[in-house]
Design brief:
about 15% helix; eight-stranded antiparallel sheet; 5 helices; homodimer; two-stranded antiparallel sheet; about 180 residues; about 40% strand; alpha+beta; 12 strands
Chain lengths: ~180, ~180
Amino acid sequence: MAKRSFPLSKVYSLLEPGPVVMVTTAAKERANIMTMSWHTMIDFEPPIVGCVISDRNYTFGVLKATKECVINIPTVELAEHAVGCGNTTGRKVDKFKTFHLTAVTASHVKAPLIKECYANLECRVIDTRMVAKYSLFILEVLKAWTDPSRKNPRTIHHLGKGVFMVAGERIKLPSTMK
Amino acid sequence: MAKRSFPLSKVYSLLEPGPVVMVTTAAKERANIMTMSWHTMIDFEPPIVGCVISDRNYTFGVLKATKECVINIPTVELAEHAVGCGNTTGRKVDKFKTFHLTAVTASHVKAPLIKECYANLECRVIDTRMVAKYSLFILEVLKAWTDPSRKNPRTIHHLGKGVFMVAGERIKLPSTMK
């Protein structure tokens, strides 16, 4: 894999802009993918992430049981794959096979990385107290990978009902913010 | 104000893409603004939002005490205002005055709307159990406003250290997702 280790201290810069992500899990021999947009950074380092996964999703039960997942960040080239994974269920479909995506072994968790995504965050569930009420899982990012050849990844951002905003131009303003 | 009431059932479409937002609060006679990127939708309707506000921010104490705020969504024309509000503290600065923003009375909360933002979400804090550990406030959106003349608002998305991605083109894919 052409990916390199990415510093945990910079993981916030990948998720803070709000991209659609593809969450992989593994139950026994079976890996699955779900598409998700409801996530937020919670802390910088170690990077803590909150994500909302409905109990109607197959991933909900697997994540609750295995406490491991990978957050994979696709770019616009994978928009159809992301929608496909969002419109099917892992109860019935092998999504890696159906959508021609490549599973790569992770270093810290059993869930696989999606090779075609430009960034991958290996995560462990560290708090499930908000799962019953809000379906909100608290994750710690254990290891991050990015493709260093992708300089301005054109992430996709869901506006609802299959409409996506594609990442546009970048601007830089003087700022003391992290 | 040229804004119209916006259906609560569609509020997710405003926050799901992950824009930078400006959170207003009011303590006694004093209104304040802070810039924030760490938020996620938690439920569709009523719209429930999670947001992370550090206890180092002036807004933290005010929000905890008053349990009310407005989430205002700026577009790229307000990028400098957003950065300015992010780099100053309400302990020392009257941000409405300093950054030439206009406070408009809200309908359900004491915190004001920022007139110049294209959308405004009046919110009440409904759960503070994750505040001590994660600085995570759970908000319910009580009332939403948008400017109907702004068809493709160019929201800004923070990539860290004053670099922002500006919302680019829109694409639509066949999808059964909400």
